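#dry-run=false #mode=assembly
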Amino acid sequence: DAKTTQPNSMESNEEEPVHLPCNHSTISGTDYIHWYRQLPSQGPEYVIHGLTSNVNNRMASLAIAEDRKSSTLILHRATLRDAAVYYCILPTYSGGGADGLTFGKGTHLIIQP
Amino acid sequence: DGGITQSPKYLFRKEGQNVTLSCEQNLNHDAMYWYRQDPGQGLRLIYYSQIVNDFQKGDIAEGYSVSREKKESFPLTVTSAQKNPTAFYLCATRLTGGNTIYFGEGSWLTVV
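#status=ok
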């Protein structure tokens, strides 16, 4: 299974942009890159996903490297409510199974007021 | 209100007792999953089900059991055989053909 590597923690100031990196050097050509975030004592929530092109939605932007071996989740203007653990995963469902549904420790994002 | 409902939110049990955690969804999703999360750790897959009356073991199935008698329901039983059952348990669903996983709010189980 393709795996991802993320920093354990990052710190940023409120109202500044945040760039959360993820390395996935063994990604296959059909793997989508997904980001989820988890607030304390809650289930993870979907943030954004992409395949090759950069993606934007109301929560964040996803920048994908040209070789697809890394990606960056961008929060354009962090707020205190963005403090959470951010997971980068490469879910695959080949054969209808649950391959790749592995959530590592993620990146603990700390936002300073 | 659409979504995934896990109950109870908090549960205390004595060691040696079986306990069942409920997961109900009205999203009409075929696939359902159970994860376990220990403090400061990532999520580990316990069991998953792609269709009614069928389920498969995940990475840490020992000491757990599940059933999938209805599309909407995927209860998880934590048996006395599970050595360290105290954890945060998360249920999730996915629409067949979709890539996004949707999570419930979780259930905290404490065994004393």
